[in-house]
């Protein structure tokens, strides 16, 4: 189907050309028609188009019992509104408009749907819908005919089905956690995170190479496990190695436990405060979007963090602590700042949100080094936990839709939560977050050299 775009200089020229061969009355009529069309177009603002598509979707959703249904020859979808892409709202001609909208199904799959509307600013009806993308993957693109200026959809053939940096479905690999102890000239203690099995990763510890007897601790609040070792001078410069076999599933929104304490994910952490400062920012980000739908609110906050922050590791080294106040002020940081900022905003408008950390496994090769830790977040809405990866969405904007509700299978989780407490714990107090080991010598923090490496099973890149 071709869509005629309204380009008023062209329209005006064609009509005036026609009127030059008509009677005076036809000239006047044509001129009046053009003036009315131009005036009509100017009166319908982008904000009115946004209001029109939202009104249509929300009213249709209410009439159908809480979901927006899209049906074609191969799909029958019950969806919920997530976001209207205001940057793509446009006029197609007098009384004709275009809107691009994200809607999600109950599994968390996000559909990018193109809507074509007709009518007035107070009464718009949808005359056509096309499902453009699924989780960021396009089914077609748009192409303009240079001669008649119409637009038509063109199927994407032989497109790469993969998403940049993402392993979908399942990934399987061995993960190696290695560190070298520093010079120990006193009483040493170390807490090393231990990866464990959960609904999205099956973990088997293949080997543990340590210089002393192993001892494991678990924190009471989040259930994280650490290898706790007490060390002395004789252990200086010794190596510690832990090897895992991991089968990891791609994560999408999943049901929360019925007895889960959600209140703990509304409370502040040491570096993730909750209060007026963040609430004001969150309400600004949400704007005139519906204020009683946590999914729409969360998407607005997700987009705000993507748009307002830059992924920068500054020279001063002040990044990487997951300090939400620093993230707010500097508008930059690594994954820890991105997700701490999002969590602070979400909690401040009563959306439970939580933090997790581990490592991202490269998708473009099957073995080798890993560039440090990686962290992410989840928020609670509609009885489910929704995974987000905002720093990756910021770096790869084409994947922003995917990372709202999904994590690739190519990652390993080492711990979750903030202000983690063990008994015995560090003299410095609760652990901010736990990916690299926490080590003390005579109660002073030291940082042993730590590296992550991997080897994938069932190679992707053979």
From TrEMBL:
<dbReference type="InterPro" id="IPR002931">
    <property type="entry name" value="Transglutaminase-like"/>
</dbReference>
<dbReference type="Pfam" id="PF01841">
    <property type="entry name" value="Transglut_core"/>
</dbReference>
<protein>
    <submittedName>
        <fullName>Transglutaminase</fullName>
    </submittedName>
</protein>
<dbReference type="InterPro" id="IPR038765">
    <property type="entry name" value="Papain-like_cys_pep_sf"/>
</dbReference>
<feature type="domain" description="Transglutaminase-like">
    <location>
        <begin position="327"/>
        <end position="392"/>
    </location>
</feature>
């Amino acid at each position: 189907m071709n869509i005629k775009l309204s380009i008023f200089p062209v329209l005006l020229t064609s009509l005036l050309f026609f009127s030059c061969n008509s009677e005076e009355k036809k000239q006047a009529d044509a001129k009046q028609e053009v003036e009315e069309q131009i005036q009509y177009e100017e009166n319908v603002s982008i904000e009115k188009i946004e209001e029109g598509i939202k009104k249509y979707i929300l009213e249709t959703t209410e009439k159908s019992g809480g979901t927006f249904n899209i049906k074609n020859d191969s799909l029958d979808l019950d969806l919920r509104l997530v976001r209207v892409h205001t940057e793509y709202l446009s006029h197609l001609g007098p009384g004709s408009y275009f809107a691009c909208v994200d809607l999600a199904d109950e599994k968390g799959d996000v559909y990018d749907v193109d809507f074509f509307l007709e009518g007035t600013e107070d009464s718009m009806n949808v005359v056509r819908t096309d499902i453009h993308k699924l989780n960021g993957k396009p089914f077609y693109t748009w192409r303009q005919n240079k001669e008649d200026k119409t637009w038509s959809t063109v199927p994407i053939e032989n497109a790469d089905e993969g998403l940049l940096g993402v392993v979908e479905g399942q990934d399987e690999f061995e993960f190696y956690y290695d560190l070298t102890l520093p010079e120990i000239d006193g009483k040493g203690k170390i807490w090393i995170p231990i990866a464990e099995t959960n609904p999205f990763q099956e973990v088997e510890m293949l080997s543990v190479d340590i210089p002393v007897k192993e001892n494991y601790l678990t924190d009471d609040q989040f259930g994280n496990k650490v290898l706790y070792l007490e060390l002395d001078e004789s252990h200086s410069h010794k190596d510690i190695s832990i090897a895992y076999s991991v089968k990891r599933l791609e994560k999408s929104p999943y049901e929360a436990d019925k007895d889960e304490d959600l209140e703990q994910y509304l409370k502040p952490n040491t570096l993730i405060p909750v209060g007026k400062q963040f609430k004001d920012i969150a309400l600004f980000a949400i704007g005139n979007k519906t204020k009683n739908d946590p999914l729409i609110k969360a998407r607005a906050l997700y987009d705000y963090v993507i748009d307002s922050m830059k992924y920068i590791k500054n020279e001063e080294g002040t990044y990487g602590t997951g300090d939400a106040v620093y993230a707010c002020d500097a508008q930059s940081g690594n994954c820890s700042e991105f997700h701490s900022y999002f969590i602070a905003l979400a909690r401040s408008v009563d959306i439970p949100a939580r933090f997790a950390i581990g490592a991202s496994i490269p998708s473009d090769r099957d073995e080798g080094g890993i560039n440090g830790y990686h962290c992410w977040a989840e928020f609670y809405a509609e009885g489910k936990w929704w995974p987000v990866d905002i720093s990756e969405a910021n770096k790869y904007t084409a994947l922003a839709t995917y990372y709202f509700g999904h994590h690739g299978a190519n990652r390993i989780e080492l711990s979750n939560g903030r202000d983690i407490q063990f008994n015995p714990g560090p003299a410095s107090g609760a652990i901010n977050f736990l990916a690299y080991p926490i080590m003390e010598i005579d109660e002073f923090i030291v940082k042993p050299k730590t590296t992550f490496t991997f080897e994938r099973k069932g190679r992707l890149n053979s």
